[in-house]
Amino acid sequence: MEEMERYLHRLITRHRSATKEGKPAQYIPELARQNPDALAITAVTTEGRTYGAGECPGYFTLQSIAKVITLIVALMDRGEEAIFHQVGMEPTGDPFDSLYKMELTAGEKLRKPLNPMINAGAMVVCSLVRGNTLDERIQRIIHVIKEMSGNPEVHIDWSVYESERETADRNRALAYILKEYHMIQRVEETLELYFQQSSISVRCEDLARIGLCLAQNGRNVDGKQVIPESVARIVKTFMVTCGMYDQSGEFAIRVGIPAKSGVSGSIVAAIPFRMGIGIIGPALNERGNSVAGLRILRDLSMEWNLSIF
Ligand code: GLU
User: Fold this and answer.
1) Out of 7, 51, 161, 194, which one is annotated catalytic?
2) pLDDT per position as a tens digit, 138-170
3) Closest ligand 1 atom, CA of 195?
4) In angstroms, what is the span from residue 7 Cα to ligand 1's centroid?
5) Active site residue 245
6) Which uninterrupted H or E stretch holds 81?
7) Architecture in CATH for domain 64-198
8) pLDDT per position as a tens digit, 15-46
9) Beta bridge mates, 44
């Protein structure tokens, strides 16, 4: 076994007990059923080597990580100017599904969600993805994930989708506020696309390859430029400023690696020109980040000196 793989095994062993300190997301019943003890990490290097440790539970849903990909597609479709006319570039310091700032900005002339990594921003971004039908639009998002990860089997987990759709009162509220402010038009279709992209399923190694693709400014593991360099730079910057919910500032200081988490307990990380990392650990802290995942990334960054700062 190579040194890297041995090291990843040590990290998993060291932080396995942290899974007891959190629990899977409860607000989506299908996610609440995830195994709280699951913990796995995969790293894929720029040389194309794959190292893994822990037990990956097979496919899991991207949840908020999908916001990164949907932003990539919308930026490729419409360009930077059009996107940032509709959605801001600033971190919020609030939970991902907060309604608070929406109300606060209500009196202003140009209203827009603060950034594309919070739910309101991601919904606006969803509404900007091109395609004649809902199916065409979601397939275009899935296609980019297949290109970035090299896995043609990426698919939607329809039971997680149904489960989220049935319990999404807060997201519906957000979407209807966005409609009232004329930030989105077709509210039901936008919500559908939002739920479907959250339920796209990947494996740990797919996440690592997605991270690698970003780490290589849009080139996938085979060296193919699958997203423009300028788009990769923008999304990596959002990962630094808003990728870890309202814990992004602390994460930047303690870890210092562009990363995005999802409430499935997944984390994708991009270590510039070195490697991509995928982690799954469904036990979450109160901010919605994988407890063990955070500790693993903190140690990895410190012990290998990987902070970009
Ligand atoms: N399905 C989730 C929601 O909007 C995505 C959230 C997340 O991973 O942060 O509630």
Assistant:
1) 194
2) 999 999 999 999 999 999 999 999 999 999 999
3) 1
4) 31
5) yes
6) helix 80-86
7) 3-Layer(aba) Sandwich (3.40)
8) 999 999 999 999 999 999 999 999 999 999 99
9) 50, 276
